[in-house]
Amino acid sequence: MRMWSYYADGHRGLCFGFDRNGRNANRFPLLKLDYLSSYPPIKIYSMKFLELTNILVTTKSDSWSHEKEWRVLSRRDQNQYVRVPEETLKEIVFGLRCGELMTESIRNWNNRRANLLKLFQIKKMDRSFNLELVPA
């Protein structure tokens, strides 16, 4: 849940859940991150570019291991979107502070789909600092 604070605009964003095993999942390969206590060995002059790039984008300090992060690597310009096969999208999670306009827009869009996605909301638990994931 801490990732919401880091990456989702202070819990105001969305999280998309994908089926990594679906028939078109290989069209956007996911890279699992390695969490290490020290920098990985890098031999710039003897490594192939793709091997070096893979190490650089998939390595983080072990202090971030709670994230269990996966990444998609794309060769596109920074202002382009990565197209993800629609059938691999399985769920959307609304952040704790996700606005009503955003949630209603997503709900309306989802209701027009042939295959409905699972929708979830992050909620604060009563009398607790903990957060929970509930159906939206």
Q: What attributes does this structure have?
A:
26% strand; alpha/beta; 136 residues; globular; four-stranded mixed sheet
Word description of this protein:
With 136 residues, the chain is an alpha/beta fold. It folds into two domains: 73 residues, no CATH class; 43 residues, no CATH class. The chain has three helices and eight strands; from the N terminus they run H-E-E-E-H-E-E-E-H-E-E. A four-stranded mixed beta sheet has the order 1-6-7-8, with no helix packed on it. The protein starts with a helix and ends with a strand.
Uncertain parts? none
**Major β-sheet, in short?**
4 strands, mixed
Helical amount: 10-25%
Question: What percent of residues are in strands?
Answer: 25-35%
Q: Give the overall form.
A: globular
Total number of domains:
2
Secondary-structure-derived class? alpha/beta
Task: Determine Rg (CA atoms, Å).
Answer: 18 Å
User: Major sheet: order of its strands?
Assistant: 1-6-7-8
Counting DSSP H or I runs of 4 or more residues, the number of helices is 3
Average of the residue pLDDT scores:
86
- For the secondary structure, the number of strands is 8
State the distance separating the first and last CA atoms: 17 Å
Order of helices and strands: HEEEHEEEHEE
